[in-house]
Model the fold of this input.
Amino acid sequence: MSSKNRTQGGKAFGILKAQQEIRLEEVNQEFLSDEKYSDEEELEEKLVIFKKKYVDFDLNDQGEIDMMSLKMMMEKLGVPKTHLEVKKMIAEVTGGVRDAICYRDFIKMMLGKRSAVLKLIIMFEGRANENCPKPAGPPPRRDIASLP
Done:
């Protein structure tokens, strides 16, 4: 593979990410201008957080959270799920009409009053990260006598 091809691939990926960012921001603007969500506290800040979280879940960068992406994210969050459980989670969010979660469905789930399993996991994961400061530096040295 020549360096020109690698650069072109990087540029294509950058363009894809920029287009995805524009699409997600357009959906955010729809929610900001929707009367139904006008009483939602800190809506703009929430949408920024939801967009970042959605991009984290969209592992294949196709603009949707498909079964494999969701399954891998659940494992990454320490909440592994079977294929059937993941399929049920997607059906719960999409109303059973799609095999993947689009951004619009994701926001409706996060802003909705119902407690979807995926919503609970995402909220729990966010709170867990807030309360647990990451240790800095190398782990402390231990000797055999200190082991349990």
